[in-house]
Every structure is written in structure tokens, then in C-alpha cells.
From TrEMBL:
Highest classification ranks of the organism: Bacteria, Bacillati, Actinomycetota, Actinomycetes, Mycobacteriales
Residues annotated as domain DUF1731: 409-456
Organism: Corynebacterium sphenisci DSM 44792
All residue ranges annotated as the NAD-dependent epimerase/dehydratase domain in the record: 166-374
Superkingdom of the source species: Bacteria
Protein name per Swiss-Prot or TrEMBL: Nucleoside-diphosphate sugar epimerase
Protein family membership: Belongs to the NAD(P)-dependent epimerase/dehydratase family. SDR39U1 subfamily.
Amino acid sequence: MSARFVQQLPHRRERVADWFARPGAVTRLTPGAAPLTPRAAAADLAAGETVFAMPVGLSWRARHDPAAFIPGRRFADEVVNAPWRALTGWRHVHELADSRGPGGAGTVVVDRIRARVPAAALHGLFAFRHTTLAGDLAAADRLAGVLGIGAGVGREPGERLPRLTIAVTGASGTVGTALVALLGTAGHEVIRLVRGAAAGPGERRWDPEAPAADLLEGVDALVHLAGAPIAGRFTEAHLAAVRDSRVGPTRRLAEAVAAAGTPVVVSASAVGYYGADRGGEILDEDAAAGPRTEALAGIVADWEDAWAPARAAGARVALLRTGLVLAGGGGLLPPLAGLTRACLGGRLGSGRQWFPWIALDDLVDLYHRAALDPALAGPVNAVAPGGVDNAAFTRTLAEVLRRPVGPPVPAAGPALLLGRRGAAELALADQPAVPARLVSMGHVFRHPGLAGALRHELLRPAPERG
């Protein structure tokens, strides 16, 4: 089988070629919903291997073909390990060609696939790749515009963004993996702060209980994502783990920021700050915190307050109060999609509770913007403008997956898994958070609508109209 996929981009070929060659490109182009997870990327496009982990301990090893490589114009890879070489014979040739359009120089990207794989199975994959590549380049140009950076001689705005050294905690999680890749393809130097031994120059060991004095040496911005998963049964032990992984380590990082003079901090936070049920109140960033008698609201408020030493030292601290992240490879979406595919995906309780979602790519765009944009400080609601209630989310997911809506889940159902408090503060929480600050700043979301976000992450592109 041979397949050919073509994409037209309004960007210089040299810029597109640079994007493909940078660290993180393989991760950015690999859908979370695919049964492949990048584990090691080839050092360059001319030679070397990229290794993907697969289910049940299998792997996929793609080796670059030096004979096919033409700098800035062509590179190729083929699978070399058993059983996939014999089963599929996969070979992928990437070609970049100059083009001209009304806006000036552009690029035609052609992907040629030769493999014993049904062509229909590749459409979702390449729709994801095309959307991601175009979205990353366009987002960089928009960010340059926000910063007042225009085009230069032979360079587009996004190519002229400042290049920072950015340290990231929680870099191996769903959001952290995508963010590190985005920052890498944008040209930044990324330092992963890891709890274990550092594996190379791109990592530093971080002890959350006692950060090293030189942890943030030479760092322009710190992104803090680490923390124990909030989802789970709200036992005292679980809530203690959630709190202890956030409040204390954050305060010690804030003290390290103050000591090092790190100028920028971008920290995860959560819409749980507002409490479980505000009676339909629209929640912008000026809304009051929820009652500290609620476990999650109290933890999030203390988590945000823990950055006080960094703010007192003059650091710009942005707090991204994040909603429910839609990612094909982790978090809430895969289990919900699995239930929906089995025709068991029904609304929770009344279904009237608000579902403040955000697409993964939009979230990492916000972290990138917050690291560079001096106008972003304090709380920012990291949610999409197209919020919906639980019933509407359930219907839209069923439509994208072409399944009927499942039977409603009684309100008592989530309590069996999460406990009474967990059900009230997570599954049944009604938090109509809106991205008021971002909208007022003219921020552009890649996926402002729910259906488009779900189609992208679940590899279900909209049918072509003919």
C-alpha cells in the first residue's frame, strides 16, 4: 500500500525544516491516542533511530535513511525491528518544497507512506500531524505579535521570539510532555527538574523537600506542574498526598526562586479554587475563593499562596487555573471515550453541572505565552471559551465517536468511586469558569469549540465535504 498526504503551509521552507529538526518534533507529531509513545528521538534527521514504546512491552524502531536525506528538503525513516519490519514494511518519506501564495513564501509538505497498512487507518494520524504542525507555527507567530515582534529580513515573527532557558517540573506527565516538546520546537532550552538522578545536561535533580542552591542557576523561567493526581477517592490519606505534593514543595520552590532571582514563574493551579458549587455564578479571575471547608478549594488556595516568597522577591508569577484537560493520551478523556465507545457514556447526575474544559494544545500554548508575556501575572483561567455542561459534553463526545449516548449515571454512582466529598468536588462540581482575562487580551485558542478539540485528540477528523 502506498499513501500520500499533502499539506500547504504559509511559512518559509527553512522555518518548517528547522521545526522538524528540533527536539520535541517527534513528540508533537505523535498523537496521545496512538499506541506509540516516543522514548528516544534520533539526534538528527540524517541518521539515527527514533524509538517508540508500544503496549505489552513492544517497541517500534524507526531508523533514518542517510541516502534519502537532503538538508532542508527531504528525510526518510523506516521500521527496522521485528515483528513490524516483516509485518508492515513501513517507510515514510518527508518532502518539503518551496511554494508561493498571496501572502508570500510558503511550503508544501508531502508525506509518502509505503506500508502494508490500510490507507484509511492513516487519515486520522495525518490530520493530527497537519493540525499540530500548522497550529504550532501559527501560535508562535501570534505570540510574537503579542510581544510586538514583527518579521525581520528573511525571518517570520515566530522565528524571532526570545529564546529562553526554561525549567519544568512534572515534565513527564501528560501536560509536561507536550509542553517540553512545544518549547523545544520553539527553540527554547528546556531543563527538566526530576526527582531521580539527572540523566544528562537537559535534566537537574530536584529534591522537593530541599531544593539545591543551584537548582535554578541560569534559568529564565520556571514552569511548575508537579503534584500528585487530584482524581481519586477523597480519603484523608489521598487528600494529604494531594496537599503535601503541592503546598510545601511549592513554597520551597518559591524560596529558591527568590534566592536565585529567577524572574518568571508559571504555575499550575485549578478551577477547584472556586469551590464545588457557586449556584450558577460565572467565575472570572476576580471571583472569590471557595470555602476552605471544602478540601479541594482549600488546597488550591494554599497552593497559590505558597508562591508568596517569589512574588515578594519581584518575580512575575502566573497561576493557570486549569479546567479539565482534553488529551488523547492521558487524564479524563481516554476513560470517557472508552465508556462512550462501549455505549455506556451517559451524563452524570442531572448533567447540568458545568464542564470547564481546555484542549491540551491550548493549555501548553498558555504556558508558553505566560513564560514570555509580561502582561500575564496572577490568576488566569485556563479554560476554553466554549464551555458546556456535562450533558452537552456527553452528547458531543458521542457524536464525535459515532455512538449513541449511554444511560444516565445516577449522582450516587461517582460517590462509589470517589467518596461523597470526591463526587461533590470533582465529578458533580459546577464551576462555570470563563477565560475572562484571556478574552480581554484577545488571546486566540486553537480549539475554541468542543467538537474540534475532541476530533483532534481522538483522531476522528471531520468528514470531508464533497
